[in-house]
Write a structure and sequence with these properties.
The protein is 40% helix and 21% strand. The protein is α+β, with helices and mostly antiparallel strands. Strand 6 and strand 7 (185-190) form a beta hairpin.
């Protein structure tokens, strides 16, 4: 037990030190990082496990620890420019729709239902199958916390831990677990259950602006110039819109949008 505790402390210290570099700093002090990470690994995670920081709005990993190699066989640099999309492409086909659909929707909706100063206390976990470099699917437990939101409480920066639970989970059911320590409640959402916390997702003001411009024939480059956004951000918004509303292409998205506002 003492050996494991020492190993755990060394592991955390190394990860926190990396997060304190100028490149990764997002305004959290070292003590805040420590508390969040300790909370994330408080349930006897196998050490080491892969840790990550994700910019959800830009769909980029800010950081992936080198332990991802032991977990999936990939080095951090294998995810080109730390692309989150590259990671999502490893998902089992039966899990990706649930992950992008009801799991993501309920995650965001629950955050928006909470007071902003309490969001950092929430802990989420979701399980899914990912293909490793050998072409084999393993069952991943992804436990994470939101460390930064925008003005409308959309999640921006996620800090999380990935671990292999293949030997502990017998079924393939995907479940999102939400733990709120302030209310001492825990909610579980199966991927087949849609919109537990809210009604059908709606278009944000920014999404409406982008869709209106798309409908008027503007290219992504022109939209970026019009809204003073980077081209990368516009592409990310367009991908996210398709995922959020489960549309196969832009035409289907435009039809859905016009049916909502008519």
């Amino acid at each position: 037990m003492r050996k494991r505790k020492t190993e755990e402390n060394d592991y955390l210290s190394s990860f926190i030190d990396k997060l304190q570099t100028n490149k990764l700093r997002i305004g959290l002090e070292k003590d805040a990082y420590t508390l969040i990470i300790q909370e994330l690994i408080s349930q006897n995670y196998p050490i080491p496990c892969a840790m990550y920081m994700l910019n959800l709005q830009q769909e980029e990993f800010i950081y992936i620890s080198s332990e991802i190699s032991a977990l999936l066989g990939y080095a951090p640099e294998d995810f080109t420019n730390y692309s989150y999309q590259k990671y999502l492409e490893l998902f089992h086909i039966d899990d990706i729709a649930g992950f992008k659909g009801p799991v993501y929707e309920n995650f965001v909706c629950y955050i928006k239902s909470q007071k902003k100063h309490e969001i950092r206390q929430l802990k989420f976990s979701v399980n899914y199958r990912v293909k490793n470099k050998n072409g084999e699917y393993i069952k991943i437990l992804d436990q994470f916390m939101v460390v930064k939101t925008d003005k409308t409480k959309n999640p921006v920066i996620i800090l999380g831990v990935l671990s292999d639970i293949s030997s502990h989970k017998n079924d393939n059911n995907m479940v999102l677990t939400i733990h709120n320590p302030s209310s001492e409640t825990k909610k579980e959402v199966n991927k087949s259950v849609k919109h537990i916390f809210t009604k059908k997702p709606s278009f944000t003001l920014r999404q409406k602006e982008i869709i209106e411009l798309i409908g008027n024939g503007y290219s992504s480059k022109e939209i970026a110039q019009q809204l003073e956004l980077s081209l990368h951000t516009v592409h990310a918004h367009r991908r996210k819109l398709l995922y959020k509303f489960n549309c196969k292409n832009t035409s289907e998205l435009l039809n859905m949008y016009h049916s909502e506002i008519s």
